[in-house]
């Protein structure tokens, strides 16, 4: 006889409720699938572009097409960076 822990039952119920909730939201399964698909593409794109930039830096090629945020941070212009950078990037800049 297989014994199932109550913790597993509660966990499975929570997953089931989350799936039902996601399916009943606007967009339903298509929205959930699109979100997962976009996340996968963003991950692959970020990994590939990060690898290319990393290899370029190793051999001494500077990054091109810098954003205004990157230019402001490199210039040490904290005031301008506070406007041109997303909050996450700006806070990382402040604490680095």
TrEMBL record:
TM stretches of this protein: 6-24
Keywords, ordered alphabetically: Membrane, Transmembrane, Transmembrane helix
Protein name per its UniProtKB record: Uncharacterized protein
UniProt source species: Hydrogenophaga intermedia
């Amino acid at each position: 006889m297989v014994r199932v822990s109550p913790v597993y039952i509660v966990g499975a119920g929570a997953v089931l409720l989350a799936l039902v909730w996601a399916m009943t939201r606007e967009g339903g399964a298509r929205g959930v699938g699109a979100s997962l698909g976009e996340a996968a593409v963003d991950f692959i794109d970020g990994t590939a572009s990060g690898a290319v930039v990393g290899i370029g830096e190793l051999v001494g090629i500077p990054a091109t097409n810098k954003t205004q945020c990157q230019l402001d941070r490199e210039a040490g212009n904290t005031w301008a960076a506070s406007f041109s950078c997303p909050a996450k990037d700006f806070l990382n800049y402040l604490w680095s």
